[in-house]
Amino acid sequence: MSKLLHSPLHAVHEALGASFTPFGAWNMPLKYGSELGEHRAVRNTCGMFDLSHMGEVKVTGPDAAAFLDYALVSKLSAIAVGKAKYSMMVNEQGGVIDDLITYRLGEQEFLVVPNAGNTEAVVAALQERAEGFEVELVDESRDTALIAVQGPKAEAVIEALVDPEDAATVQELKYYAATWLVVAGHRVLLARTGYTGEDGFELYIPCAEAEDLWKAISEIGQEFELVPCGLAARDSLRLEAGMPLYGNELNEDLTPADAGLGVLVAKNKDGDFVGKQALLGAEEPKRQLVGLSSSQRRAARQGAQLYAGEQLVGEVTSGQPSPTLGHPIALAYVDRDYTAEGTELEADVRGKRLPFVVQTLPFYRREQ
Fold it and tell me: Where do the annotations place substrate binding (predicted)?
């Protein structure tokens, strides 16, 4: 087995006493103390995550917009400069290679952010699909660090780290938008995005400057009850927010429509795009992604089979007790006839059938 990669912030995490876990090719912080405490900090005050394992691919050139329209399922050419879009890359059969965010930094400049475990596959696919387009692709993943600040007090934390004349820029930055800004003395790409269901920001910065920025955020964050958070809290937060995780809810055997994300496919795009024939000509999925909740205490974990009476009708893809809601929740693929809200199912948990009910997603929605 090859040696796991380290984040540029690895020494900082070690000094904070983090427990580590393999995540794709990376050795990343799982938690620093109580994962429950970290989860609650993001919901109530503020948490900070190291996401430097994520990929960053710069796409530039006269054909950049048209190329991304071809390479991804959405119409990226419609994004205004300074905005971002959540989309997917699929194969010719419509199977999901990755779900990713793309930022438009200029008329001919985009930043594509794939998931950590899929970065190599995305870069390879982009390079292959670039033939015939006047574009330049630069994989900046190993040179770029990414820090996320998430929670109700996230805006106040970032505002405290910028010059007074830039405070309004932070306050007025919309969801799924990004801007270049000096934060704690460092020029960063500041994006109002995240994976927790809370308000928050993601800060892209060169690896060499990441430690100084992390420490500056930590220091000022003490005033706002900010705590460092690991992947365990990130997973429970995204599950409450009903957000899919690649490898659990998404893979190359599933299409965007299977995951309830067919809306990402731009049906009115000019010209061809990879997977177009498979996606636009597909029948309605036999199984669909739904939310499940239960009033009993035991959670149904990934792989638990779901029954309606004695009929096997689905399988859990992610599940655990919800720290915020106080009862088990899960995401699952379920036969189409059993996806209506309120449908009662049973999960097989170690040989015992436990009751669950289909619930509209997300499980948790923050107060605006």
Answer: 202
